[in-house]
């Protein structure tokens, strides 16, 4: 009986310290779509050509299949231990020129994954110095 209790105790201890933990799983933020910052959205203005919009914003995530004059830039951030942030920018073209811009969501601040220093790690070590993704636009000039 004493041997059986030792085996059960050892089995429980090994289960608790193994990878199949009772305490939970690791989660991470999941960003999907086009990353559109407030600065990018502010630079859009009626009269721009499609190529100028692509140069500024990149290719759209969605082009309406039955209406070639509408592009959608969609961004969704599913925070691991928080809520969901969604943004959508709908651009309507008249021929080859941008006619209107519609904002859906909060474009008053950058998405949560972008720190004040830029996209990527926020550490101030030697590896991150000189990396263009970690430099704000004012530091590039």
TrEMBL record:
Domain Outer membrane protein assembly factor BamE: 33-100
Protein's UniProt name: Outer membrane protein assembly factor BamE
Any single biological process term in GO: protein insertion into membrane
Subunit structure: Part of the Bam complex.
Role according to the record: Part of the outer membrane protein assembly complex, which is involved in assembly and insertion of beta-barrel proteins into the outer membrane.
The keyword Calcium is assigned to this record: no
Subcellular location: Cell outer membrane
This protein's UniProt keywords: Cell outer membrane, Lipoprotein, Membrane, Palmitate, Signal
Region (Disordered): 102-141
Transmembrane as UniProt keyword: no
């Amino acid at each position: 009986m004493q041997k059986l209790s030792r085996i059960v105790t050892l089995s429980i201890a090994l289960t608790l310290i193994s990878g199949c933990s009772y305490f939970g799983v690791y989660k991470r933020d999941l960003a999907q779509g086009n990353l559109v910052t407030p600065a990018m959205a502010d630079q859009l203005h009626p009269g721009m050509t499609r190529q100028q919009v692509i140069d500024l914003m990149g290719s759209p995530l969605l082009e309406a299949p039955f209406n070639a004059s509408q592009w959608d830039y969609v961004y969704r951030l599913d925070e691991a231990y928080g809520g969901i942030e969604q943004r959508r920018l709908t651009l309507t073209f008249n021929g080859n020129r941008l006619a209107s811009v519609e904002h859906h969501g909060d474009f008053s601040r950058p998405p949560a994954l972008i720190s004040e220093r830029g996209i990527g790690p926020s550490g101030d070590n030697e590896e991150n110095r000189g990396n263009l993704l970690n430099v704000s636009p004012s530091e590039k000039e």
